[in-house]
Amino acid sequence: MSEPLMQVVYVSCATKPFTEGELESLLTSVRFNNQRLGVTGMLLYREGDFIQVLEGPETTVTELFQRILSDARHSGVFELLSKPINQREFGEWSMGFRRIDQQHIPGYTKMMNNPDDQQLKVETASQALALMRNFASMKG
Ligand SMILES: Cc1cc2nc3c(=O)[nH]c(=O)nc-3n(C[C@H](O)[C@H](O)[C@H](O)COP(=O)(O)O)c2cc1C
C-alpha cells in the first residue's frame, strides 16, 4: 500500500512584503519542488499574509512543513489544521496561487487574536479551505 496522505493548512506573515518578482520566483521553485515531491496545494497571499494548504504523502508533507517553518521569508507560522486524507482536494495543482486583495477569510482576525481557541482554528481552516477550493475550481 502506498503511504497515507495528509493535509496541512497554516497561516503566516511575510517578514517583509513580497514584490511581484519575489512571489513569482517563490512560486517557480515551489512548483518545481512540489512536482518532484508529489506535493499539491494552494497558496494565498493577502497584504503580507500567507495561507497555504499542502497535501501529499505524510512523511513528505511533515518534512516539508518543517522546512517551511524555518524559512526566514516569513514568520509567525501558525498551523490551523493537520489531518490524514483519503484523497487530494488540490491534486491538479503543484501549487495554485491567488492574491486576495478583496476577499477576506471570515474569522481570521478573531482567530489571530485568540490563538488558543481550537474551535476558531477549525472554523477558520474550513473557511480558508472553502475559499481555496473555490479558486481551484476556477481553472485558467
Ligand atoms: C509562504 C511559503 C510557502 C512555501 N511553500 C513551499 C512548498 O509548497 N514547497 C516547497 O518545496 N517549498 C516551499 N517553500 C519554500 C521552503 O520554505 C524552502 O525554501 C524550500 O523547500 C527549499 O528548502 P531548502 O532551502 O532547505 O532546500 C515555501 C516558502 C514560503 C515562504
TrEMBL record:
What PROSITE patterns does the database record attribute to this sequence? BLUF
Gene3D superfamilies attached to this UniProt entry: 3.30.70.100
Describe the location of the BLUF domain by residue ranges: 5-96
InterPro entries per the record?
Acylphosphatase-like_dom_sf (IPR036046), BLUF_domain (IPR007024)
Q: Which SUPFAM superfamilies match?
A: Acylphosphatase/BLUF domain-like (SSF54975)
State the protein's name: BLUF domain-containing protein
